[in-house]
Amino acid sequence: MTKVKMMLGIFGGLAIGTLIGVLLAPDKGERTRRKIRRKSEDLADAVNDKIDAKFEKLLDELNGRVKRTAIKKAGDQEELTA
After folding, report:
1. In terms of residue numbers, what domain contains 37?
2. Number of folded domains in the chain?
């Protein structure tokens, strides 16, 4: 859980820093809002990519465990019938 909290802290700090930087930049309101929207979308995409990668890793691990269990059960079944 510490890695998750650390990543959330990093992304949160990055988002807040970006927002403050954009808000303090001397641009017109529409342009500033466009920058905020773009940065928010980039951040959301990065977070989604990380979540997808973790989910895929979890699914791969789960599939591996299911396959190993099925092979073990099949071996146990063969021993019972032999």
Report:
1. 2-81
2. 1
